[in-house]
């Protein structure tokens, strides 16, 4: 299995428009962050987690040539507004793309992208998608088992996903006790870490470190980072087994 970080930034992206802080003006490519998303390749099938608002740019930058399925964590703008650009893959492969999301996310997507569902037979002009609503049970995606895990984004339940021994948990401010068992024995944990200061709907650095150490994955990567997280400075403070992800990072598992 391969995991490619398409973006590791918060909803603003980094650099932030109009900001002259050290992170936003940094020359380091590791401080330039598109909106958060990953592409998981397993058994030669490409599973996209979230269609970020930067999906077109990410696809061109990393030469994405196929998307075989999409998993959605939740319906916030930075995680879904690239959905329309999946239609090029319909055209390339002459088939619909299976998509998976929780009930509320599916309902919101059908409202926000009503044209996709109201006019499903317009060839080429809109994405051709097949939505499956998921609950808390494991499900199959093109022969690969995916385990949804409920986490909390503030007070809103959203989905983390476990594929094999890798877990993607973005936009997280707490993990219910009933969900913790699904985090056990992970080789790779990708975890939300928004900023240094506390935030009502995301882990800050201190909280993310505490949760990562409690879960005890072999390797943890932080993602969905704001400009308060300067890559080199924060990296120096991290313990062994925990690192900051960055756009373009590729993991082979």
Give an overview in words.
With 253 residues, the chain is of the alpha/beta class. It has one domain: Metallo-beta-lactamase, Chain A (4-Layer Sandwich), CATH 3.60.15. 22% of the residues lie in helices and 28% in strands. It has 8 helices and 14 strands. The strands form 2 sheets. Strands 6-5-4-3-2-1-14 form a 7-stranded mixed β-sheet. The longest helix is centred in the last third of the chain and has 11 residues, at 205-215. The chain is globular and about 55 Å long. The protein starts with a strand and ends with a strand. The model has no long low-confidence stretch (mean pLDDT 96).
Q: What overall form do the CA principal axes indicate?
A: globular
Radius of gyration: 17 Å
Number of DSSP-assigned strands: 14
Strand order within the widest beta sheet: 6-5-4-3-2-1-14
Residue windows where pLDDT falls under 50 for at least 5 positions: none
Q: Structurally, how many domains make up the residues?
A: 1
Distance between the termini: 5 Å
Sequence of secondary-structure elements: EEEHEHHEHHEEEEEHEHEHEE
The CATH superfamily title? Ribonuclease Z/Hydroxyacylglutathione hydrolase-like
Please name the CATH architecture. 4-Layer Sandwich
Helix content: 10-25%
Helix/sheet category: alpha/beta
Q: Remind me, CATH topology? A: Metallo-beta-lactamase, Chain A
**Main β-sheet description:** 7 strands, mixed
- Give the helix tally: 8
Mean pLDDT level:
96
Kindly provide the name of the CATH class: Alpha Beta
Strand content: 25-35%
């Amino acid at each position: 299995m391969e995991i490619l970080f398409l973006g590791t930034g918060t909803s603003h992206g980094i650099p932030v428009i109009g900001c002259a802080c050290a992170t936003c003006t940094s020359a380091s490519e590791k401080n330039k962050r598109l909106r958060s998303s990953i592409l998981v390749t397993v058994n030669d099938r490409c599973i996209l987690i979230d269609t970020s608002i930067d999906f077109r740019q990410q696809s061109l930058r990393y030469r994405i040539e196929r998307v075989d399925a999409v998993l959605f964590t939740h319906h916030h703008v930075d995680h879904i507004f690239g959905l329309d650009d999946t239609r090029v893959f319909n055209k390339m492969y002459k088939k619909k793309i299976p998509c998976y999301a929780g009930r509320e996310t599916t309902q919101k997507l059908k409202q926000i992208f009503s044209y996709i569902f109201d006019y499903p037979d317009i060839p080429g002009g809109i994405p051709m998608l097949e939505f499956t609503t998921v609950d808390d049970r494991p499900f199959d995606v093109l022969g690969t088992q995916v385990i949804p895990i409920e986490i909390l984004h503030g007070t809103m339940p959203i989905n983390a996903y476990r594929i094999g021994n890798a877990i993607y948990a973005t936009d997280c401010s707490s993990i219910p006790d009933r969900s913790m068992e699904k985090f056990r024995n992970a080789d790779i944990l990708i975890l939300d870490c928004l900023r240094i200061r506390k935030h009502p709907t995301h882990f800050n650095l201190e909280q993310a470190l505490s949760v990562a150490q409690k879960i005890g994955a072999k390797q943890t990567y932080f993602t969905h980072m704001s400009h308060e997280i300067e890559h080199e400075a924060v990296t120096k403070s991290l313990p062994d087994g925990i690192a900051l992800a960055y756009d373009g990072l590729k993991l082979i598992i």
